[in-house]
Task: structure prediction
Amino acid sequence: MSIQELKQKYSIKDHIIFSEEKHNIIVELKSKYSNARISLYGAQVLSFTPNGEQDLLFLSKKSYNQEGKAIRGGIPVCWPWFGAHPTDTTKASHGFARLSKWQVKSTSIKNDNLNLQLELNDTESTRKIWPYKFKAIISITVGETLNVELMTINTDKLPFTITSALHSYLNISNSETITISGLKDIQYMDDVKNIECQQDDALLSLQGEIDRRYINTSSACTIDDSKFNRKIKISKQGSETTVIWNPGAVLAKKMADLGDMEYLNMVCIEAANTLNDSICIQPGQRHSLNTTLELT
Result:
């Protein structure tokens, strides 16, 4: 659908606005309480800014802005697999959803909340990468909070298994001074050290590279950012795995799409389905993965 057709069919005056940026179409949602920007490429929220606040989401100044490359920041959609493909490492890390152009399904406004729904369906190209028929729907609701829901529907005749994540990059003042609560006494896989551990402390502090998958948890996490004088709560549904990631100084310098010092201004807290939380979906059935960001 062309930009003109999108504007005519789905724009809502002063609230939902479509624009072109290079190869991409951006949707801006302007609510009574906040603004958000969403990329149709990847169905990716790029920005969520409550009135009078700094953006809650981080977006790298060096992020790629071209087809075939993932956007570094916002809330990438990792689907239908999380991380490396389980059997074929030549396939794109974190799946193909974040590298695909999604179609607008609907827009609406209700009780001062704006909603945008985007849809991705299987094609001949996707079935060469992942041999199943499916429908994926991203529903983004913007108001006092930001809510992102990923719905996976199995339209195939066979069951399939997915791993996935809503890979939220949070905008912070300094990764070495913030703390994260909500993970006390939870087991995790440390993917930097390749060991299994349990977090004993009530607060998690970040020093150096961190890549952890906390298991059997549906709890919310809260970032306490004293320098920005705010707390960000990240809650979720349909997920029993929480991923915490920050590349640290050494890895950041090796990443072409992240500034050398930008690791200080981001931390990823991800609602995920991975490890023992992979999801088998029967024909005709569906699964919902949901995350909400809010100031507390």
User: Anything to note?
Assistant: The chain has a mean pLDDT of 97. Residues 12 and 239 are 33 Å apart (CA to CA).
